[in-house]
Design goal:
Chains A, B: InterPro entries: Tscrpt_reg_HTH_GntR, WH-like_DNA-bd_sf, WH_DNA-bd_sf. Chains A, B: This is GntR family transcriptional regulator. Chains A, B: Keywords: DNA-binding, Transcription, Transcription regulation. Chains A, B: Pfam families: GntR. The structure is a homodimer. With about 130 residues, chain A is mainly alpha-helical. Chain A has 2 domains: about 15-75, Arc Repressor Mutant, subunit A, CATH 1.10.10.10; about 85-120, no CATH class. Helix content of chain A is about 55%, strand content about 5%. Chain A contains 5 helices and 2 strands, in the order H-H-H-E-E-H-H. The first copy, chain A, has a two-stranded antiparallel ribbon with strand order 1-2. In chain A, helix 1 crosses helix 3 (about 50-65). Chain A is globular, with a radius of gyration of 17 Å. Chain A starts with 13 loop residues before the first helix and ends in a 5-residue tail after the last helix. In chain A, about 30% of the residues are buried. The structure holds a DNA duplex (30 and 30 nucleotides).
Chain lengths: ~130, ~130
DNA sequence: TCTATTGTCCTAGTTCACTAGAACAATCTG
DNA sequence: CAGATTGTTCTAGTGAACTAGGACAATAGA
């Protein structure tokens, strides 16, 4: 089961945070087709956001074809995202963890690491 | 000189995007103490956001002690962020680029890569 | 069938990001 | 000094995000 963590006051919309967390869990293989998302009321109780906000997040995921809402029973993962095959991800994760350890021992903070990745992904100096 | 790229419609506030881009440029060593940020009017002309929005971004950076606004002459980088020594960053960037190439040839999209990094940084399975 | 659970809708209202446009104030340059 | 450039302030308004609270509808399970 996925556990949502909504950071109010971070500036960006709660419904986007929820959506992103679902997508991310799908990419990492934590959520697979058929899995059930937390109940709207669950999320309300857990994260403190309003039911309409949760609904908005879920509706966007549904529009994107990623989940399917079934009244009375819950919201279920329907599609797939990314190439979340564990046999592909696992070795990559290991390699990344190694690099991260290196970066951290060189004194880099998490934000430095994110910045560096964004730079590399967007093609260097641009 | 830093070039801003504001993605309207991405959902999160323009002033946060501007602030983040300055912080990131500082982390990567593109902006160093004494460097001048683009003029408020420059950013307005370039990115299309309103002057007040740019001002809000700059004011937040100033409150954080990262920049200093001097009326009549511009806004200048004051503090430092991260450990942006090139002799430290360069080899790390190289190693990361290598890993990214590997991940991409394994079929991962950028979003997969971000998700994986977030997972690793937050300490694995959490 | 009855009941609990779930998603869904509705109305009303508040807060905040952002826009628009104008004016002022300090600094630099010639 | 004069003019251009820069940051700064102000007022007014729009739209979106979010809250609050209630009600309805479909499904699952006993």
């Amino acid at each position: 089961m996925v556990e949502f963590h909504v950071d109010r006051g971070s500036g960006f919309p709660a419904y986007l945070q929820l959506g992103q967390q679902v997508r991310e869990a799908m990419r990492l293989g934590w959520l697979q087709p058929g899995d059930r998302l937390p109940t709207v009321r669950d999320v309300v109780a857990t994260s403190g956001v309003n039911a309409n906000t949760v609904l908005k997040a879920y509706r966007e995921l549904e529009l994107a074809g990623l989940v399917e809402a079934r009244q009375g029973s819950g919201t279920f993962v329907k599609g797939t995202l990314g190439s979340a095959a564990p046999e592909v991800l696992d070795p990559l994760r290991e390699g990344l963890a190694k690099w991260v350890a290196e970066a951290r021992s060189a004194g880099l903070e998490d934000e430095d690491i994110y910045a560096l990745l964004r730079e590399v992904l967007s093609g260097g100096a641009q």
